[in-house]
Task: inverse folding
């Protein structure tokens, strides 16, 4: 089996900051390698090919968990649950996405923006009042998505702490023992069951109540599906936001200082900058999983290569977002100009990330307010001393000591 070409410069270690990922030559057609379990996997990297993979109904998620399907990971994790929205396809998947879509409307997002801004400012206030150096991950990066979802679901501080704990375990690899991860996921499922039951009995103005109402209007969404929606939204939101924002802060506080200062001065440039940062900064080394997995339900040709039915296929969105045939300019060169071609950081097709707009809103607010109020924020350790946290599809700072 062939292996992928190195895309990290030889002078950079495997634990170089994620913004150091480079494509050194044109990307090639799909190639065959293996997952850590020994399961063969076709890795797709070119932008056009990845978009095809993510939008082609012949390549789906549900068949990854069909009886007799090959093992995908060595570790128990949230993605192993075939009942969650992310692992469904067809009419059932569309029905559940409609349910979530009724809660995540543009009107709802616009209504949430002022209080999300207040959450950002509250976290910055606490950061300013803390001793220096302080941990930006614990005090801001990790706290922001949990604080947002806690308020969306109308949870108290105790439940906020538990959400953070469960979020840390949901997509873990070797950071926790398998039995710890399994126990954390069981606890969260039981919490979700109780929360949905409580909100059904006493509905409010929160996200869970909105999901229940939308599910009831549909008439075919089960209670278990509602619980799985709550779990996936919170855990995926925690993982994506913590990873993307953490790696973005490493870049902005090291090689991206000019961008950092401009973000604080000019709010108008922030949305375009967020899109470029999402495109350019890798979320993973792809050493646990090489990308977002699908399984071919019939023979499929991708990029001139015939992928046999039954094959596991990985969409390497990290490389696709750096494809020099699509993005000839380095993303750092014009950080305030939106990408000419939409990036794939949130996927594409029927499994496009439901929380994408919320994650972008959090980033836009944080990446203006934080440099505006703390322009002198800087790392208190050398970049090579950063302690990294690994997940199934991610790598981000475990801690990020900062001062100002």
Result:
């Amino acid at each position: 089996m062939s292996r992928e070409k190195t895309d990290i410069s030889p002078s950079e270690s495997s634990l170089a900051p994620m913004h150091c990922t480079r494509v050194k030559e044109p990307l090639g057609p799909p190639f065959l390698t293996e997952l850590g379990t020994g399961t063969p996997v076709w890795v797709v990297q070119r932008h056009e090919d990845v978009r095809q993979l993510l939008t082609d109904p012949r390549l789906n998620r549900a068949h990854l968990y069909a009886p007799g399907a090959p093992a995908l990971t060595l570790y128990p994790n949230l993605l192993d649950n075939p009942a969650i929205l992310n692992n469904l396809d067809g009419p059932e998947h569309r029905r559940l996405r409609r349910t979530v879509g009724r809660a995540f409307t543009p009107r709802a997002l616009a209504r949430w923006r002022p209080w999300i801004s207040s959450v950002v400012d509250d976290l910055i206030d606490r950061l300013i009042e803390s001793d220096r150096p302080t941990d930006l991950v614990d005090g801001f990066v990790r706290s922001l998505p949990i604080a947002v979802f806690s308020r969306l679901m109308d949870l108290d501080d105790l439940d906020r702490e538990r959400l953070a704990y469960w979020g840390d375990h949901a997509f873990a690899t070797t950071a926790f023992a398998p039995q710890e991860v399994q126990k954390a996921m069981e606890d969260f499922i039981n919490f979700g069951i109780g929360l949905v039951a409580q909100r059904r009995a006493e509905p409010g103005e929160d996200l869970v109540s909105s999901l229940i109402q939308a599910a009831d209007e549909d008439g075919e969404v089960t209670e278990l599906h509602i619980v799985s929606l709550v779990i996936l939204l919170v855990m995926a939101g925690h993982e994506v936001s913590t990873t993307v924002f953490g790696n973005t802060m490493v870049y902005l506080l090291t090689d991206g200082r000019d961008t950092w200062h401009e973000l604080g001065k000019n709010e108008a440039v922030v949305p375009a900058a967020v899109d470029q940062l999402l495109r350019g900064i890798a979320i993973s080394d792809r050493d646990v999983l090489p990308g977002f997995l699908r399984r071919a339900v019939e023979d499929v040709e991708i990029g001139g290569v015939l992928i046999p039915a039954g094959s596991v296929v990985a969409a390497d969105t990290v490389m696709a977002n750096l494809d020099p045939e699509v993005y000839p300019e380095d993303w750092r060169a014009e950080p305030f100009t939106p990408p000419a071609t939409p990036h794939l950081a949130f996927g594409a097709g029927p499994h496009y990330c439901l929380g994408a707009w919320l994650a972008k809103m959090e980033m836009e607010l944080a990446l203006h307010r934080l440099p505006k109020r703390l322009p002198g924020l800087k790392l208190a350790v050398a970049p090579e001393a950063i302690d990294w946290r690994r997940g199934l599809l991610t790598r981000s700072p475990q801690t990020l000591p900062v001062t100002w």
User: Anything to note?
Assistant: The radius of gyration is 21 Å. The chain has one domain: 27-403. Residues 223-252 form the longest helix (30 residues). The chain is about 45% helix and 10% strand.
